[in-house]
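Hi there, hope your week has been kind to you so far. Do you reckon you could talk me through the fold, stretch by stretch? I've dropped the whole record in just underneath, so have a look:
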Amino acid sequence: MTRTRSRIAAAFTVGGLLAGFLTATAAPQAALAAPPSGPAPIVGAEEDLGHAINSRVLSQYQAQGVDQEGRPQAYWVTAGNSEIPAMFQVTDIRSGKVVFGQRLPSGTGSWAVTFAKPQRAVYFGMTNGSVYTWAPGDTAVTSLGTPFPGEQIWRMAAAPDGVVYGGTYPSGKLFSYDPSTSRFTDHGQIIAGETYGQSLAIDEDYVYFGTKPNAKLARFDRKTGDVQHIALPARYADEEAVYDMTLAGDYLFIRLDHSSDLLVYRLSDGTVVNTIPAISGRMVSEPDPTGRYVYFRIVADGIVQYDLQTHTYSPVGWKPNALPGSWEWIDLADPAWPGPTLSMTYYYGRVYLWNPQTHATRYIGEEDLEGAPNPIQAMGTGPDGAVYIGGFLSPPGMARFDPEDDAMTLLSGAGQVEGFGSQGDHLLYGRYPDGNLLAFDTTKQWAYGTNPVPKAILGDEQQRAQAFVDLGDQIAVGSIPRAGRLGGALSFWTPSTGEVETYRDIVPQQSVVSLVEHDGLLIGGTSINGGYGIEPSASEAELFVFDPDTKQVVERVVPVSGGSAVNALVVDAAGTVWGLSDGTLFTFDPGTRTVRRAERLFPNVTTMYGHERGLVLAEDGFLYAAISDSLWRIDPVTWQTSELASGRVAFLTKGGDGNLYYGRVSRLYRWNFALKAVCSRIIRGEYSGQLKVEAGTTCLRDANVGGAVSVGKGADLVVHDSVIRGPVRAEGAAGLAIHDSSVSGPLSVIGTSGDFTLVKSSISGPVTVVDGRGPSLLRGNVIRGRLECTGNDPAPRDDGEPNQVTGPVQGQCADL
């Protein structure tokens, strides 16, 4: 175990904020009432509260080029989620209009986009390994397949002759694609042990290849395949990545991560001729038309001009509030913009222009680009009883849902949240990627930069703060290290001063992903995984007991043999600790420091950190768990489980109203105990023959029905993750819901009195929706046949996720 201290320069101000911290006390855990004897009926029902962060435009990587007429264009691969694939879009920079857009067949995002000037074509690779191309004038994107199964395409760059090179993860390969032969070539792992092909720069003879999770640099000979390693200065031995590279004449500019220092190599002799500390933004521009200057961004100065002859730089007076993602010298064909104009893209779908002659600037926003709802990354309940939802790589911010009025509010600027906690009136959260710790005073308006207050930063290579426990003056924080590193930490953050004291490797080579406090001791759970890009060295996750006074680990146990992560720790009124490890529920006695019981109750689903799991103690005497893609009720006496909701359920918190809140991809759901239970009959697994639903609500969950299904007057059918090998007919039904399922035959929905939903499902036959008197939603389905909707009030909708229909589309569904 190692210990480090860090302090931010700007500590929290004294006053009401400090007083709130000093007087805060930990909220008592809910007591478990005696559960009823025998199997208890299900109480409550699920409510869909909609997308938490409704839409975001985020193109992790961008490129610029020109069409066949020389009009400058910006190229985006805007991120999707696991339900909605990413979208390739093109902005005409002269007009500012989006001139092409297509949802891709698969893949959620791209870190690899390049424009090949010889053939005037865009190439981009996805994190699912697929590669695509598009040329201006094409009516559709062309798939080049998945050339290296199991590899993510991490970077791509085009050579002067049009050959496209790329780097991969997790094997750190270099590959090339020759458009003249349509062939991919695998050049293998360039630097032994490095898992990310992070950055590329290419000239006529060589490919310069930078890596992650350890910053290393090599030169690949395009003719011979020889690899020459290029040493970084010794002081950069601990850098995480050679993140970006730009060739400019006889110089190679490389930006390192985490320092963000910019190194200028002279290619003729391999020496570093200049170092610029802590630039801001990913990219350095290519040389201007004179060949003398390149441009990059420094926070204090804005965009600066760097002289390749004198190796000095100076601000140009242009300060876009954005990090450069790509640069290009373009022609706007406008007398007011004479000569070449410098164009810069930003990953939120924005373009910034600056003319060196006139110093004129222009901004093109993202309003015309199509985004996608943000996947949920973290969820927690604040001291105000509201539910807070953080998103993955979230440009919009995080969401706040208020159970008192069911209002969803966007809190801008929050970034990617990894975990939540609370102290007094303050919501605490950890922000990726820099290990930031922030506190939001929930009694005041959100104003990022002042409320939440200035951030503290975890030390010792810690990047993801996932678990928080209030200890009075201090907050205990469990964290995960940065990419390529093992060894998480338990830190103690003093919000009043900004001081952070870090104890790393309290369980050697494991991350701290869950924490609770009991009788003055901290009890924590670990994950065997460290940051991305490195294999774990440990084989089993552990539970540890830590004394905050002595700063010593006093006990370590393995609660579940072979478990990869220990999550969702809670303490009941009797002092028993409950937790989850992969598919197992366990209890731990802090007095004897032994595991009392461990039982595999759920399907075993293993993820890197298990942070999507949740466990809640409720006033009705039951525990509730989000695990293995479902929401479960658990009897703490008999350990009998009941599945309440299924299909991509993740995260779990209890709101201030006592109800349960959880997510599915990007949508927030509530298990409302006040509502009538949905399912009077649940069918799972094989069901042979026809199924008739004549009364009540029948629920199919992971079912396989071997015949036709009929739903009679006043009855309900709810279908999730199931297969129906026959037609479905609902006539006069109270409701029908089919989600993430398939139907082999026609679907007829006639005269429903309540809701009809058909979501993310496959129907092999015509779909008819007639005379419905409740809301109808048909979203993201594949229908192999006719789609016809008539006489429905209100008319059916698709909520912006159109259906794929192979037959004619008629009536009220013509636009769906």
Notes: The chain has a mean pLDDT of 92. Residues 215 and 237 are 8 Å apart (CA to CA). The first helix runs from residue 16 to 22. The first strand starts at residue 2 and ends at 7.
